[in-house]
Design brief:
alpha/beta, Nucleotidyltransferase, domain 5, five-stranded mixed beta sheet, 10 helices, 5 strands
C-alpha cells in the first residue's frame, strides 16, 4: 500500500493557505474512555517521514517513536477530547465533533482543515475537506491519527492502574473478551459508556440488563 502523501495539503498550499491542518480521532468504538482528536499543522516545506501510516497499521513501539518525530516536525499540534458523560449525553458522533473542534481551537488560527471520514450536516465546521480513508491518503491526517492514538492509549494505561481488572493497558477500552468478562464480574466504572452497552453487548442480554439495572 502506498504511504500517505501531501497531495491534498499541497493543493491548498498552492492556493496560499499556509496553515493546513490534518485532523483525526480515536476511540469512537470503545466501551470505556473518552474520544480523543488531534489536529496537526505541518510546514509547507515538510518532508514526509517514511514510516508514517494510518495509526492502525503501526505497532505501539512504532507509534511512540513517530509521535516524537511528528512533534518535532509539526508547526502546531492540538489535542481535544470529549468525555464519557458527553458521549452518553449527545451521542458519539456529536461528541467526536466536539473533540475535533477542541483540537482545532488549539491550533488556531488555521486556513483549511483536512478531516478523516465523512461529515454530516450537523458537523460544526467551516473551511474543511472531509476525506474518506484520509488517514491512509493524507500525510497530515495520518500524523494526527498517530498523535491521537498515542495520547489516548497513554491515558487509558494510566486509568488501568486505578482499574487493573479491565485490562485497559492492552485493550484501551475496546470490547474484548477480557473486558466483557471483567464487566460481568466487577460491573461498570465511571469511565464506561452506558450508552454503548446495548449496542455492543447485545440488547436485553442478561449482562447488559444487569449492568444497566434493568
Amino acid at each position: 500500500m502506498e504511504p500517505p502523501s501531501l497531495i491534498y495539503e499541497q493543493a491548498y498550499w498552492q492556493q496560499g493557505y499556509c496553515r493546513v491542518v490534518g485532523v483525526d480521532e480515536v476511540g469512537r468504538g470503545c466501551l470505556a474512555g473518552p474520544v480523543v482528536a488531534a489536529a496537526v499543522i505541518l510546514p509547507v516545506d515538510c518532508v514526509p517521514l517514511a514510516e508514517v501510516r494510518d495509526s492502525k497499521q503501526l505497532n505501539p513501539r512504532q507509534r511512540s517513536r513517530l509521535f516524537t518525530e511528528i512533534a518535532k516536525q509539526a508547526i502546531a499540534i492540538g489535542i481535544g477530547s470529549a468525555s464519557v458523560a458527553e458521549i452518553d449525553q449527545v451521542n458519539i458522533l456529536q461528541a467526536t465533533y466536539r473533540a475535533m473542534a477542541r483540537a482545532l481551537a488549539r491550533v488556531a488560527p488555521w486556513d483549511h482543515a483536512l478531516i478523516d471520514g465523512k461529515l454530516t450536516k450537523t458537523a460544526p465546521f467551516e473551511r474543511v475537506t472531509a476525506i474518506v480513508g484520509g488517514d491512509r491518503h493524507s500525510y497530515s491526517i495520518a500524523c494526527a491519527s498517530i498523535i491521537a492514538k498515542v495520547r489516548r492509549d497513554r491515558f487509558m494505561a494510566r486509568l488501568a492502574r486505578r482499574y487493573p481488572q479491565y485490562g485497559w493497558e492492552r485493550n484501551v477500552g475496546y470490547s474484548t473478551p477480557q473486558h466483557r468478562q471483567a464487566l460481568a464480574q466487577y460491573g461498570l466504572t465511571p469511565w464506561h459508556r452506558r450508552s454503548f452497552l446495548k449496542s455492543l453487548l447485545h440488547p436485553n442480554s442478561p449482562l447488559c440488563n444487569a449492568l444497566l439495572g434493568e
